[in-house]
Amino acid sequence: MPQASAGERTPMNAPAPRLDREALLDAARLRAGLSDFGDLWFVEPLDAYVTAANAEGNLTPDGLAGQVEGIVKGLTSRLRMIEDIRLHPEILDEHVEVAGIILGLPRTGSTIFHRLLASAPGMTALRWFECQNFAPFPGEGRGEAPQRRAYAQAMIDGWLQLSPELASIHPLDPDAPDEEVIVLGQMFVGTAVEAMTFVPSFAAWLDEYNQEKGHEDLKTILKYLQWQSPSRRGAKWILKSPTNLPYTEVAANAFPDAALIMTHRDPLDVVPSYVSMEAALYKLNSVLDDKTVGAFWFPRLASWMDRFMAARERIGEDRFIDIDYRQVARQPLVEAQRVLERIGIPVDERIEAALAEFLAGNKREQRPAHDYSLERFGLNEATINDAFAAYRDRFIS
Each residue's pLDDT tens digit in the chain (397 positions)? Predict the structure, then answer.
């Protein structure tokens, strides 16, 4: 991860060889010039993550520095938000309507579908630069974010320098809608942490941890972002985190009025595509061989789906809208209009024009082809088919 700009550089000496909780908290306090983190519930998952990263992460020196920066920036945003709420308690009075949450396995077309829905008039979403720093930097007024946009672009440039294949895997754009799981990761819940750092023991710990506090804070952060940009008032929010799949009930309970939009694609395509993405992300911070990445992520994805299938039964079918990857590829406007009508956005000529304009400027061919294979990661077709048999029978075949 690139270093922060001069005004946002971590005020620490050369990174210690290991992550240290108190040093991270102190660095955030010093950067923000503030000390009140609000509810300290996040310290428990932070401790679990630090322990796992130190034991298993195999972080390079640059990777360790990147992890320090990623953690400190999230803690700094929290400090700044708590202070803004103290000064402007009306932030908590913002009415945020989350109309839909896109779920499904990763690599199922959820990014393009999310951005397509968010492009409709009357819709809004978290932007990538906001996911990285949800609190304004010093000197940024409400509705302004030049420094945060510059920070986000520097991150993207640094990522692509270290791992060029990311350009073909995920479209990175500071202003594009992106995943709230990035924000949850700054509270050490959700799945963004394990996506960026190889921490199998933390992933197992997180599966048993009650993540409700993270989504309660996420609701506050959405209010905070809406308060920063009053033009969002009255718009419907569309969230998207495929990697929230194993914790679907947490998201469904946090936003009880939101439709759960599930994108579907054959796991034979999904698994190697996502494992290759993880190999590219781990390359930013660690030294790991491809087969180690495959050996962790294939059973992890299978377990996510098992957890989801059980949760879907408990939640009830009426909450779900199913979207087939193949149909999105063939007729994206039809699928987007179907969802918008369901979540209360009547489709008229203005919306049709906005959706068409978005699609015209976002062709997949504008990015290099994403090259991946099962063999590279020590995987094979038969074991994937077996692990996802129930899911494939219901949603793919």
Answer: 444 443 454 444 444 458 999 999 999 999 999 999 999 999 999 999 999 999 999 999 999 999 999 999 999 999 999 999 999 999 999 999 999 999 988 888 888 899 999 999 999 999 999 999 999 999 999 989 999 999 999 999 998 888 887 777 777 899 999 999 999 999 999 888 898 899 999 999 999 999 999 999 999 999 999 999 999 999 999 999 877 789 999 999 999 999 999 999 999 999 998 999 899 899 889 999 999 999 999 999 999 999 999 999 999 999 999 999 888 888 888 999 999 999 999 888 998 998 888 888 765 445 445 556 889 999 999 999 999 999 999 999 7
DSSP 315-347: H-GGGEEEEEHHHHHH-HHHHHHHHHHHTT---
Inter-residue contact 48 to 202 (CB < 8 Å): yes
Residues 103/248, Cβ–Cβ less than 8 Å: yes
Pairing status of strand 97-104 against strand 236-240: parallel
Structure tokens at 186: 């700054």
Q: Write down the pTM of the prediction.
A: 0.91
- CA 315 – CA 192 distance, rounded (Å): 24
Exposure string over 124-133, b if 16+ CB within 10 A, otherwise e: bbbbbbbbbb
Q: Look up residue 348 and give its amino acid.
A: D
Please state, in angstroms and rounded to a whole number, the distance separating the CA atoms of residues 278 and 293: 7
- Interacting residues of 52 by C-beta distance below 8 A, sequence separation 6+: 199, 200, 201, 202, 205
| Residue 205 in tokens | 């710990």
